[in-house]
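Researcher: We plan to redesign the surface later, but first we want a full-length starting point. Tokens attached.
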């Protein structure tokens, strides 16, 4: 048994399972907290829903919530401005909008996924490229399970415990020697 090949086979099977989903497959997650009764957008890897109307308002609310969680660590983010905008348009030659709601309800063996929805948020700045990427993963009941927030050279990992959401660690990518990642905060 080759563990690497097994991993890629599972990933491929999970991708195929989640590209074949229908509205009946996701109706148990509808309005928890997003309206999923929207047209699906698919590319070769993901099934998504565009952010518009109420879903976009919720996306702004969750982006603000992530900023509030990271505020006590603002001094670690030297010179970084937290995002206020979300790009919902398409980039050239892309099938998915820049920001969207990813649906991923099944594992490779068709069991229910722990995090069936991922809110994928970005903002495209014409001068700098992507300003940030925020991936907020939601549990089946619609609560936030975890979040990866990348802005400039920093990545914050936010997780959930019994008390609520907390910052597990913050990593800075070093583009000057010594190259690599530097952990600047960890629980």
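Model: Full-length starting sequence:
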């Amino acid at each position: 048994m080759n563990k690497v090949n097994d991993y890629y086979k599972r990933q491929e099977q999970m991708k195929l399972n989640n590209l074949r989903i229908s509205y009946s497959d996701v109706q148990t997650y509808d309005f928890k907290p997003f309206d999923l009764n929207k047209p699906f957008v698919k590319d070769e890897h993901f099934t998504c829903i565009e952010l518009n109307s109420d879903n976009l308002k919720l996306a702004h609310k969750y982006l603000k919530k992530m900023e509030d969680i990271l505020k006590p660590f603002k001094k670690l983010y030297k010179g970084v401005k937290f995002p206020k905008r979300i790009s919902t348009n398409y980039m050239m030659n892309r099938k998915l909008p820049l920001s969207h709601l990813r649906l991923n309800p099944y594992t490779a063996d068709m069991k229910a996924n722990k995090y069936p929805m991922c809110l994928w948020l970005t903002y495209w700045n014409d001068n700098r490229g992507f300003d940030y990427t925020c991936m907020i993963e939601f549990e089946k009941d619609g609560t936030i399970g975890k979040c990866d927030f990348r802005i400039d050279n920093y990545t914050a990992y936010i997780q959930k415990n019994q008390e609520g959401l907390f910052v597990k660690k913050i990593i800075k990518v070093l583009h000057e020697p010594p190259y690599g990642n530097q952990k600047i905060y960890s629980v």
